C-alpha cells in the first residue's frame, strides 16, 4: 500500500466534537429572529455545508427566504465567534494522532466549511501551536467543499500532489471532496454521519479510531 505524506482533516465531527457549540450559536440566532430552536440531535445531519446552508436548514420552511437566511447566518456566525469552544473538545485519540504525525514528519492540514476565522479560533484554542501546516475555512470568494479547489490549493502550498494525500472526514461532503480532488478518501465512524452515509459516498476506507490512520503513513512519511 502506498504510504502517504500528508493528511488533510475535516474539522467538525472529525477532529473536534463541535456540535453543541454550533447548535447553541444557531439556536441563539434563531431566537433573536423569533424562530423556534432546533433540537441538538437534529444538527448532526444538517451541518457540513457551511453556516448559510445550516441557517437555511434550521429555519422553518416559511422563513427560508434569502434575506432571512442571510440575517440568521450572520447572527449565528457572530455568536459562534464570541464563544467557539464552550463545549467543543477534540475526540479521544486525536491529539495523540496529530503528535505522532508530526513526529513522522507528515504534513497536516485542516479544510472545513466553517467560517475561516472561527475555524482558526477553534484550532488555536484546542490544539498546541503549529499542530497543522495549514488551516483553511470558508472565505469570501473561495470555493467550499465538495469543490476540490481548496484541497488543491492546500496541496500546492505544501508542495504535494493529490496522490500524496489522505483526506479524512466524517461526512458525505468530505468523501465527495476527496474523490473530486483525487485524494485517498478515509471516513471516520465517530463523527456526525452514520457509516452507511460514508460508504454510499465512496469512502475508500472507514476507520473506527484515530490511530488506525497511521496504517496509511510511513514511519517517516515516505
How does this model look, in words?
This protein has 222 residues and is of the alpha/beta class. It folds into two domains: 6-17 and 88-216, HAD superfamily/HAD-like (Rossmann fold, 3-Layer(aba) Sandwich), CATH 3.40.50.1000; 19-82, DNA polymerase, domain 1, CATH 1.10.150. The protein has nine helices and eight strands. A six-stranded parallel β-sheet has the order 5-4-1-6-7-8, with helices on both faces. Strand 7 (184-188), helix 9 and strand 8 (205-207) form a beta-alpha-beta unit. Helix 1 (19-32) crosses helix 4 (66-82) and helix 3 (51-58) packs across helix 4. The model has no long low-confidence stretch (mean pLDDT 95).
Question: The CATH topology of the largest domain, please?
Answer: Rossmann fold
Structural class assignment: alpha/beta
Radius of gyration: 17 Å
Helical run tally: 9
Name of the level-1 CATH class of the largest domain: Alpha Beta
Question: What fraction of the residues are assigned to beta strands by DSSP?
Answer: 15-25%
Low-confidence stretches: none
Give me the strand/helix succession. EEHHHHEHEHEHEHEHE
CATH architecture of the largest domain: 3-Layer(aba) Sandwich
Oligomer: single chain
